[in-house]
Amino acid sequence: MTTFSLSRKSRFRFWLLGVGFFVVLLSVMLLSIVLLTTEHVLSSATVKETVQQMLVARTGIAIGYEKIGIDYFPSPTLALHQLTFSLPDRLQGKADTIRITPNITDLLTGKLNVGMVALERPDISLNLPDPLPFSHPPGSKELDISFASVLHVLPVLNVHISDGRFSLASGTRKVVGEHLDLTLK
Q1: Which of 62, 80, 141, 154 has the greatest CB tally within 10 Å of its CB?
Q2: Residues ≥6 apart with Cβ < 8 Å to 34
Q3: 93-135 pLDDT, tens per residue?
Q4: Could you say which DSSP state residue 131 is in?
Q5: E strand or H helix at 119, and its extent?
Q6: What is the Cα–Cα distance from 77 to 101, expressed in whole angstroms?
Q7: Around Cβ 10, how many Cβ atoms within 10 Å?
Q8: In Å, what is the CA distance from 128 to each residue of 80, 136, 137, 165?
Q9: Is the separation of the CB atoms in 169 and 128 below 8 Å?
Q10: Whether the bond into 137 is cis, omega within 30 of 0
């Protein structure tokens, strides 16, 4: 009968391998817990209130939403579901989902800049104080210039709207578009 014994060096390697496996397993478990609870925490009333107050303070736009979702692959994306938004006397709207994707290069350098915004099935109403020249056919340069003057307040974004409804009103005149797919860059 032979006894099997490990040298001191082999025992240390075996112990180090066990500790390494335990650390990796613990890290994976903690990361899983964080990923699974993040959406629940972000959808809490306290976080909703903080986000709403921050947006009103920075942009003047009041928002409401049911819950926040996070997609990690293929790129990190924040999704607000059942969104409502308004800017008093100017803008009102709702959307099934808005997906906000940060600019990855900026994110890797520690900055948080929005790269793309996607609205799914939005219903947006915009009221303008000055009359637009509606006598020109849609797509004319005059209407494009007037619409561009409205959008100058938005930061440079890549915005995609799918299956949307858009209403633009000025005084008693109103232009409505339904089932729109629109990309603004």
Answers
A1: 80
A2: none
A3: 899 998 888 887 777 787 777 788 888 888 888 887 765 455 5
A4: P
A5: strand 114-120
A6: 5
A7: 10
A8: 27, 17, 19, 17
A9: yes
A10: no
β 114-120/158-170 pair status: parallel
Q: Which residues of 146-171 are buried (b: 16+ CB within 10 A; e: fewer)?
A: beeeeeeeeeebebbbbebbbbbebe
Whole-model pTM?
Answer: 0.62
pLDDT tens sequence across 9-58:
888 888 899 999 999 999 999 988 888 888 788 778 888 888 888 878 87
Which one, of 140, 132, 142, 141, lies nearest residue 168 by Cα?
A: 132
At which residue do the structure tokens 């409205």 appear? 150
DSSP result, 38-81: HHHHHTSHHHHHHHHHHHHHHHS-EEE-SEEEEE-SSS-EEEEE
